[in-house]
Specification:
The complex is a heterodimer. Chain A is an alpha+beta fold. Chain A contains seven helices and twelve strands. Chain A has three domains: 102 residues, Sandwich (Tumour Suppressor Smad4); 159 residues, no CATH class; 30 residues, no CATH class. Helices cover 51% and strands 19% of the residues of chain A. In chain A, strands 2-1-11-10-7-8 form a six-stranded antiparallel sheet, with no helix packed on it. Chain B is an alpha+beta fold. The longest helix of chain B is centred in the N-terminal third of the chain and has 39 residues. The chains are: A alpha+beta, B alpha+beta. Chains A and B meet through helix 2, strand 12 and helix 7 of A and helix 6, strand 21, strand 22, strand 23 and helix 7 of B. Strand 12 of chain A pairs parallel with strand 21 of chain B, so a sheet runs across the interface.
Chain lengths: 328, 465
């Protein structure tokens, strides 16, 4: 049985891993140590770790260090070592500002995660050609949508710059998460992050194209404003939660909470807009339009429409009575 | 030499004679103003609307005695605050340094007139003005009385210039300085007979008066109402509101006011609602009876009424940068009925917009048009206290000319006026790839029946020929 010493960072990511077959390991800043630590708060010979193979016990001894040793068997549960102390496999030692995890070589590891279809998909798709294709697709979508909204070739340059700035923002987003991931987990996954943000932007772009059509054909047009906002909030939620999962070690609930911040702000803002509707003179008439070729709504004759309009007076009357009751 | 001196002398004497004549004419005119003022000074009052809680004045106007028994006429807009919040305001005049509280007897909201009387009867407010039967001749001198900007009772000389042209509701054009605070004051002829009531100004000596005909009709209506209801409309001297009475005493008011009976306020509001509805019904009837001329708007045709009182406009715009053509035209019935602060009603308007983007994809044309027509609003204003929220129906409608339009028809009710609505109509043709016609109307303060008749007509005024 051997002993494994891992140097880890604050978030638990392993920086170095060494295996020792000897019974005694010395850790310190001195060049004669088994593990040389580049930390000014660590003594030349700071700690001695002993492993008794017969009874399979690990112990550590403070070699009269300036800053002492702190043992952290669990995150947040710290205790100082006075002289000699027994350790369990997996305990973390804090020396100065450096962290070491001490493990027996037979320390159990988590079972392997099954490689699902999605893992396989993401793994296969997380390659630069796919990312560049997505970026191109998004750029084309943005330019096409802007052009269809106001078709003038003179504005193409403006539309292209819009697309460029969106892509730049997507790359910056992925870059930031990759940096965080590299710092916390030692793995940036820049390509996957990029793929994620580009895909979500394409989805939003496509939805932006379809929501007006849906709102035209399905009843309750004002509802579709919420649907649009909800889709935006949902997409932001999904993207953030996936980014957090890829770049941090956060557990499920903290991750969810963090990912909910921006979507919640959007939802609350939308609700406040609805509740605070003193705009007395705005009329909730149908504002969307679709081209005749895309219009599949059924038609009525003007006589029938006038009859329906006549019935509307009854509904308005009911409303007035309600207002009176409220006032009373 | 001699002859030229003679000529100069003669011209000078002519100028002097003319000057003397002019001065004497002026003296006569101003003498008349003096007479008019002297005879009726005590029959014209400054009308104050007092906010009861703070005791401060909310608005000021002028009122004048028109009937025996102390009935005063003024503008509706002077006392409008009292109508909607009777418990919050009181109407007051001052006579011989004593304050007299007034009640509203009746209102003509369309002409902007109100008649008032002291809460306690048997008060003589002065000699009533006589109302003139016929309109004066154009150019005749008239004298407007009122209290401009709270400066004191003033008499202003001006000229009668006939009725304002192209107005559905009659108003007199008076060339004289009418200023705020003079609202509700009488405008009298040489014989001191009332010709009209000060109501509005648009500056530069252009003033507007309510013709006295409307005031006569209002007093007649009130008298017949009195006869119909016998003693019911007589004042109930017992119902004295203690709070106001105490307040009035402490403020040195000689005659305590009484609370406006609730039924009276409800009656007034009911009557106002009916007046607005019958005004818009008359307007819509006139519009529907008029000839609707077919006008071409590029590839579409629209029909527009040729009524002279409709204020119409038109414009066309070729946007070369975007390759878009638009043609617009619209009409408005002119003036609104003032109901209160930021609250008006009683008008109609309609508008057409032709849109064409021949070089655009159909999708783009409709997206652009949707954005362009997304901010339509009714031109009248009102608060949440006064108006309900709009309810709409949206349909694809084929009219008799086979034009398919997406029509939104929206209605809202008035909380204080039963069976009165604002109707908002917005239609956009959706059957051509690159051309569309928007047609829109707003009817403000309409009854269901007249709004429906207008809707039935308006659905058919646009067509692809």
């Amino acid at each position: 049985m051997a002993l494994v010493v891992e140097q880890i960072n604050k978030s638990g990511h392993v920086l170095t891993r060494q295996r020792f077959d000897t019974h005694l390991i010395h850790i310190g800043r001195g060049l004669d140590q088994n593990i040389v630590v580049d930390d000014v708060f660590v003594d030349a010979s700071h700690v001695q770790i002993a492993y008794d193979a017969a009874v399979q016990t690990i112990s550590c001894t403070d070699l009269a260090s300036v800053n002492g040793i702190i043992v952290e068997p669990e995150v947040g549960k710290k205790s100082s070592v006075l002289g000699c102390s027994k350790l369990s496999s997996g305990d973390i030692l804090l020396l100065g500002r450096s962290r070491f995890r001490i493990l027996r070589s037979d320390h159990p590891v988590a079972p392997a995660q099954p490689l699902t279809f999605w893992h396989e998909c993401i793994y296969r798709l997380s390659i630069w050609p796919v990312v560049m294709l997505c970026a191109l697709l998004l750029g084309v979508c943005i330019v096409a949508e802007s052009y269809l909204s106001l078709p003038n070739t003179e504005f193409l340059q403006k539309y292209a710059s819009q697309a460029f700035y969106t892509l730049l923002a997507a790359f910056m987003y992925a870059g930031i998460w990759a940096t965080i991931g590299r710092a916390l987990l030692g793995e940036g996954r820049l390509v996957t992050q990029l793929l994620l943000v580009l895909t979500s932007l394409i989805v939003l772009q496509v939805l932006g194209f379809f929501v007006p059509w849906l709102s035209y054909h399905l009843p309750a047009e004002p509802l579709w404003a919420f649907v649009g906002k909800s889709m935006l909030a949902a997409t932001i939620f999904v993207v953030t939660i996936l980014s957090l999962r890829m770049a941090t070690r956060l557990k499920r609930w903290p991750r969810m909470l963090l990912a909910l911040v921006i979507p919640a702000a959007i939802v609350v803002d939308t609700f406040l807009t609805v509740l605070d509707t003193p705009r007395m003179n705005s009329v909730p008439y149908q504002k969307n339009l679709v081209a005749p070729s895309m219009n599949i709504r059924s038609k009525v004759t003007s006589a029938l429409f006038i009859k329906e309009a006549d019935r509307l007076y009854g509904e308005v009357d009911v409303d007035i009575e309600k207002n009176h009751q409220q006032a009373e | 030499m001699f002859s030229s001196q003679w000529w100069v002398l003669r011209s000078l004497s002519t100028v002097m004679i003319l000057w003397a004549f002019f001065c004497s004419a002026l003296a006569v005119a101003s003498n008349k103003a003096v007479d008019v003022y002297a005879a009726y000074e005590s029959s014209v009052y400054q009308v104050k609307i007092i906010e009861i809680a703070s005791g401060s004045q909310n608005s000021l106007g002028t009122g004048f005695v028109i009937m025996e028994g102390g009935v005063l006429a003024t503008n509706y807009h002077v006392i409008s605050a009292k109508v909607f919040e009777p418990e919050k305001y009181r109407i007051e005049i001052e006579r011989n340094n004593k304050k007299i509280v007034l009640d509203i007897l009746d209102i003509d909201v369309v002409s902007d007139l109100a008649i008032l009387a002291p809460s306690i009867s048997n008060i003589n407010l002065g000699q009533p003005f006589e109302l003139q039967r016929e309109l004066p001749k154009k150019g005749e001198t008239l004298y407007s009385l009122g209290n401009p900007h709270d400066l004191g009772m003033t008499v202003v000389e001006g000229t009668f210039n006939g009725l304002v042209e192209h107005r559905f509701t009659e108003q007199i054009h008076f060339s004289g300085a009418i200023n705020s605070g003079m609202s509700g004051g009488p405008v009298v002829s040489d014989e001191a007979r009332v010709v009209g009531v000060n109501v509005a100004t648009s500056g530069n000596q252009i003033g507007f008066l309510v013709p006295v005909k409307a005031l006569r009709q209002l007093t007649q209506r009130y008298q017949s109402h009195l006869q119909e209801h016998g003693g019911a409309a007589e004042k109930d001297a017992d119902s004295i509101d203690a709070q106001i009475q105490v307040e009035a005493r402490s403020a040195g008011v000689a005659l305590p006011s009484r609370v406006e009976p609730l039924e009276k306020t409800d009656e007034l509001l009911k009557s106002m609602g009916k007046q607005i509805a019958s005004h818009t019904t008359a307007m819509i009837d006139a519009a529907l009876d008029s000839h609707w001329t077919v006008n071409a708007m590029a590839e579409a045709t629209v029909k527009s009424s040729d009524l002279p009182w409709l204020e119409c406009w038109g414009d066309s715009h070729k946007n070369k940068k975007l390759n878009v053509n638009t043609i617009s035209r619209g009409c408005h019935s002119g003036s609104n009925i003032y109901l209160g602060s930021k609250f008006n009603s009683g008008f109609m308007e309609y508008e057409f917009l032709y849109f064409e983007a021949l070089e655009w994809p159909s999708y783009s044309a409709y997206q652009y048009l949707a954005r362009d027509t997304a901010n339509a609003m009714p031109a009248n204003r009102g608060s949440k206290k006064q108006l309900g929220t709009y309810q709409c129906i949206n349909r694809e409608v084929v009219n008799q000319y086979d034009m398919t339009s997406r029509i939104s028809y929206c209605l809202r009710g008035y909380k204080n006026f039963e069976n009165l609505y604002d109707a908002f109509y917005m239609a956009i043709s959706v059957d051509k790839d690159k051309q569309a016609v928007m047609s829109h109307f707003t009817l403000s303060g309409v009854a269901q029946d007249s709004a429906q008749r207008f809707l039935t007509h308006f659905v058919e005024v646009v067509a692809w020929p």
